[in-house]
Structures are given as structure tokens and as C-alpha cells.
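Lecture notes, unit on protein representations.

Consider one protein chain, 239 amino acids long.
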Amino acid sequence: MLASVTPTHEQLQVALQSLVGPDLAVVCTGVDGHPETLWPEERDTMARAVLRRQREFAAGRAAARAAMRRLGWPDCAIPARQDRSPLWPTSLVGSISHSSECCAAVVALKSQWASVGVDIETDERAEPALWPSICTAAELKTVSRLAPALGTSWVTRIFSAKEAYFKWQYPSTEEMLDFQDVEIQLDPDALTFKATRTARRPGTKPHAPVLGSQIVSHGHIFSFVAHRPHIRHRPAEVL
């Protein structure tokens, strides 16, 4: 059973589907999911969580199963690993994200896409006090050149792009990155961003930039990173 779906969720889903393309399935709903509909393997993960978190989790799993059905895939459990990332069926890849008002799930066939990372945020949620922890020095320099009214939205876009990148890279690296490990260059006119690993950690080298997509729609920022199979070391394709 899906969480509530409002006209805003429907419109946002259309916008996101247009961004990611036809061979990935997108479902957007509210975050008021139904914990009683979770599969047993999923319910165990949420046994000690507060009700709000249980409802968000249930909304994400229901949205993911709805996206799976759009790909012709039967319903099944999507348990959480110990690191809390979703354990997808072996033939699928996907990503789930929540804002305070919206849940978004994107699922694809593994034969077509090797990894997917998505993030959805309420626009302008990054308060100025958080900017130094979110942004690198170079990103803060860019923000300082913007009109003051644009700064909060711009930093929220940086935050969202980094979150999508973190989810995209994790299945292959199992690295828990922080915000200073990745630098984002936004190109809002082209609806894209470029994410580059920094060499901040000892023994690491900068990676080739990875391209992602991003839109602002209905008060939300949605960021998306994905790559096709067998091109792990090349920049990701942008949809």
C-alpha cells in the first residue's frame, strides 16, 4: 500500500521521470507509509525505530515496490543491510530518498544500469550555520559571490548532489564519505552538476569527475547520479 499521493507528488514524479529517462522507474509519494505492510525481513529492521521513521521507511519500500512493478518485477522484500542501505534483488539497482514531505524511489534493471544514487530535499533547507560543514572552501567561495537570497538554495543543491553521489558510489566502494570528500560544481542552466572526489584523505587521489542531473521542482531539489555497466571509471552518463 502506497503512502498518500497528492497532485504535487504526481507532478513531481512526472518531472523526475522526465529527468532520469524511460528505462528507470520513478515513484513519488508522501512519507506517511504504513508499517503494517512491511515484509517480515523489513519489519525486523524497524522494530526499535520511532513511529515517524517506521512510516518513512514503509513509504520508501512501498514506492520502491511500485517502481519495480513498472519494470515488470514482482513484489519482494527489500531488507536493509547493517549499514542501512537497501538490499535490492540481484537483478535490480535502485535508490530511495525522503524529504520532510516526499519520498522518491528510483529502480532500474542491473543489465542496463550498474548503480543509481538519488536524493530529494526540501529547497532552501541548508541554514547558513551548516554551510561550512557541507561545503568545501572552493564551494564556499562560489556561494560568497552569489546574491544573499540565493545562497541557501545553492548550498541545499550542493548538499543534495553530494548525497546522491554518496549513494551512487557506495555499492562498489563501501566507503562512508563525508561532505569534505567531494566537491560539487553546479550548472543549473544545464540541469547538471559535476562531482569530484578530493584528495583530502591520506593516500587518496582525486577521481575523474562524475556527472549528475538535478532539478528544482515544486519546492524540492532532486539529484540523480547513475552509470551504465562496464564504465565504472568513466564519468557517469547524464540523463
